[in-house]
Amino acid sequence: MLAPAQLAALAAIHRQGSFEAAAAELHVTPSAISQRLKALEDLAGALLIRRGPPCRATEAGLRLIRHHDEVALLERDLARDLPGLAAGPARLRIAVNADSLATWVMPALAQVEGFLFDLVIDDEDVSQDWLRRGEVAAAITNQPGPLAGCDTLALGALRYRATASPGFAARWFAQGVTAETLIHAPALTFSEKDRLQHRWAAQAVDPALLRAALPCHRIASSQGFVEACRLGLGWALNPDCLVAGALQRGDLVEIAGDQPLDVPLFWQFTRLAAPALRGLTAALRDAAARTLI
Hints:
The protein has helices spanning 4-16, 19-26, 30-44, 59-81, 98-110, 127-132, 166-172, 179-184, 196-204, 222-230, 240-249, 278-291, and strands at 49-50, 56-57, 90-96, 115-121, 138-141, 150-164, 187-189, 216-218, 236-239, 253-254, 261-270. It is of the alpha/beta class and 293 residues long. Among the domains are: 1-88, Arc Repressor Mutant, subunit A (Orthogonal Bundle), CATH 1.10.10.10; 158-262, Periplasmic binding protein-like II (D-Maltodextrin-Binding Protein, domain 2), CATH 3.40.190.10. Strands 3, 4, 5, 6, 9, 10 and 11 form a 7-stranded mixed β-sheet that branches. Strands 1-2 form a two-stranded antiparallel sheet. Helix 1 (4-16) crosses helix 4 (59-81) and helix 2 (19-26) packs across helix 3. The radius of gyration is 22 Å and the shape is elongated. The protein starts with a helix and ends with a helix. The mean pLDDT is 93.
């Protein structure tokens, strides 16, 4: 039998990155964490953690962490029907893109009780990878699947607009938005994984721009994108619902007229955890219906 305390130690080491941090999270000593991991590795007959820094789970370790997370969700669901089993809220790890979190996801999370949310913020192009590796129980992604052992629900599309300040647009795009001007005008990017600006440029201007080396400021903040555009730092794709007011006031303009980019989003979750996630799934679908197109 797998001991819950040993599985919890494994998950904490992987997510905290060290034995010391895992011990602090679980309120035990680092020696206890080490002993629990060794016992679990002996039982599994496999290396479960690659010692760091940071410490990271092996493929076998990730499978056990996923099992640990799914059991916790199942027990939380069972406790709703058997109050005598009730413990504390279950920790729920979800991968979500920053723009969804900044626009429509947070109100949905606030509607659901019984969870401690652990949000992994990553690009919608790669959030499914977290689910595939077993590091999260669910993800908001632009990949429809199919993904083995998971269900997928379409949520709608988040509409983006290519925006900049009036002064920036006058300086860099006085002669129009072309491949030549986009190669020189500073843009914004969320991270090295963010290809949204490239995708819009390829769709609206020239397919070759999908692989072009656009000059970019890196700003890992949805609200930071809007403020940076407003202040004339660069141009960027911003969610329509975040910039509608700024566009109406004239603080921002669309650099190429009405040419939005719609990014489809999907809610993917492990089939085993589906009953425990029923309430959250309903809240996310309701929130998406109010914001997405």
